[in-house]
Design a protein that fits this description.
58% of the residues lie in helices and 0% in strands. It is an all-alpha fold and 138 residues long.
Length: 138
């Protein structure tokens, strides 16, 4: 079983730092100049709301939010945003990263196409999460 070694929010923060570094040192082409780059704040706001609602659903279900400890899961969350998305927490992180890239405004952060692959965490821990949820519902 593949297990993530870095919590997804920490990974997203590292990706955001890499995006900033690339914007600062390798700006390439300025795509969005002020005030148009402010569109990024909308994506950041959406990402924060989605993540807050997702975490709140886990807290209400009294189960762990930590994908590094799926064996501590006590219930399967299927309410709120989890009715329409398999994992809105990662969706929120991706919205935050897209917003950050738009705020930076240059092509370099957007060329970090793997930053959008914060979902790699999702891919690497889904088998473990599936097994842990299977144990809960058996």
């Amino acid at each position: 079983m593949l297990k993530p070694r870095v919590p997804p929010p920490v990974l997203a923060l590292c990706i955001a730092a890499l995006m900033w570094w690339m914007d600062w040192h390798i700006p390439l082409v300025r795509l969005l100049a002020p005030p148009w780059n402010s569109i990024g704040w909308g994506f950041i706001g959406i990402g924060l709301v989605v993540d807050a609602l997702s975490v709140t659903a886990f807290i209400r279900a009294k189960t762990t939010v930590n994908p590094l400890c799926v064996d501590r899961a006590t219930s399967l969350v299927v309410t709120g945003l989890y009715r329409v998305s398999r994992n809105p927490m990662y969706l929120g992180l991706i919205a935050l990263l897209v917003g950050w890239a738009l705020l930076l405004g240059s092509l370099a952060p957007l060329s970090v196409d793997r930053c959008i692959r914060a979902g790699d965490c999702h891919r690497s821990d889904s088998p473990g999460r599936g097994r842990a949820c299977g144990k809960i519902w058996r």
